[in-house]
Amino acid sequence: MFSQLDYTGWLQEHRLDDLYGVDVAAYGAIDAHQSKPTYLAVDAANEVPLAPELDDLVRLHYLAVTRRVTTVLEFGVGQSTLAFGDAVAKNSVAHGDFVSANLRRGNAFEVHSVDTSAEWITTCRERLPSDLRSFVTLHQSDASMTTFGGRACTMYDEIPNLCPDLIYIDAPDQYSVRGSVHGLSTAHVDRVPMAADLLLMEPFLLPGTLVVIDGRSANARFLVNNLQRRWQYEDYRDGEFHTLELVEAPLGAINERQLRYCLGDDWPGLRL
């Protein structure tokens, strides 16, 4: 999926360093994963936004642009929201006419980001460049402990009612989830995220849908073990992320046109 990605070249071509205000000379290797303090990801008191991680952001931008993504659903607002907004804006210019005339996309060239924190949403909205704000919609929703198939997990109380072709899972964090199941919750330093929103949405997703999971290895394995359709799973351990792609035969003519236009005639689901 990333064999053709030149991190530095993509960053320079799309001026992502300017977008994030990053001094590339001082940053270091663009494709290197940045290490974090041991307890940073599970620090309930942390209120400082994480600095841009260019390897992650370049990858997300690359995926959205090269796959001609029209609709992004993002769990967790932050630095990635800006990357998706820029990518979708560029896709609108490059592919808007074809999509409008040939595909059925009810939320064409939109990014929808869900987060539990109204404060983070406000911060993210203020940081969005004015020319990208029309492409990004930010949603506040609580997240609660619940069960799926008898297993404890979390779900957002409200999920935007749309059909994304790219889903990014980077939330909720462990301490923003409400409630417990028989005393169990994610609000513990030794717990791990366990979001099940994708399982709820799975029956409605179209072939070709791509899911990217930031870290969250236990959560990724939970999803893989409970999904029911034909997903291709990849664990990118060096970059600490996972992908799931829904590789199925097209549902019909319109879906096939989307797959051929966005993913190419050689996309494996077209041969099923």
Q: What does this protein structure show overall?
A:
The protein has a seven-stranded mixed beta sheet with strand order 3-2-1-6-8-10-9, with helices on both faces. A three-stranded mixed beta sheet has the order 5-4-7, with no helix packed on it. The chain has helices at residues 7-14, 16-20, 24-27, 54-66, 79-102, 118-127, 197-201, 217-226, 253-263; strands at 71-75, 110-115, 136-140, 143-148, 151-156, 166-169, 177-178, 210-214, 231-236, 241-246. Helix 4 (54-66) runs parallel beside helix 5 (79-102). It is globular and about 50 Å long. The protein starts with 6 loop residues before the first helix and ends in a 9-residue tail after the last helix. The longest helix is centred in the first third of the chain and has 24 residues, at 79-102. It is of the alpha/beta class and 272 residues long.
